[in-house]
Specification:
Length: about 100
């Protein structure tokens, strides 16, 4: 089953910018071969359910391996079985309605 998720990962117990930690997860997501799009408050990831959740797990494991004592993640999950739809289809769909 395909899934689309919006992942926001926040290392807890560290000071400073989140950007270096986000970059670590971004590289893992990029290397996974999954379709993704980095946003200002999270990353949209799409693909096979098991592959997506394995990627989320790798992000947690890698950050812990880099010394992050606690990782808090917010994950919004979307599945659809009545038709194929990419996360990239959603914004243009709303934009078409706005232009009417």
């Amino acid at each position: 089953m395909n899934v689309s998720v919006d992942l926001c990962v926040v290392p807890v117990g560290l000071e400073g910018s989140l950007a270096p930690w986000v970059a670590i997860c971004h590289e893992l997501i990029k290397d996974s071969g999954l379709d993704y799009e980095l946003g200002p408050n999270g990353t949209a990831i799409e693909g096979d359910w098991d592959a997506v959740f394995a990627c989320v797990k790798r992000c947690h494991q890698r950050l812990h391996g880099e010394g992050v004592p606690r990782v808090h993640a917010t994950l919004r999950v979307n599945t659809r079985v009545d038709r194929e739809q990419s996360f990239r289809d959603k914004v243009p769909s709303v934009e078409r309605l706005i232009q009417r």
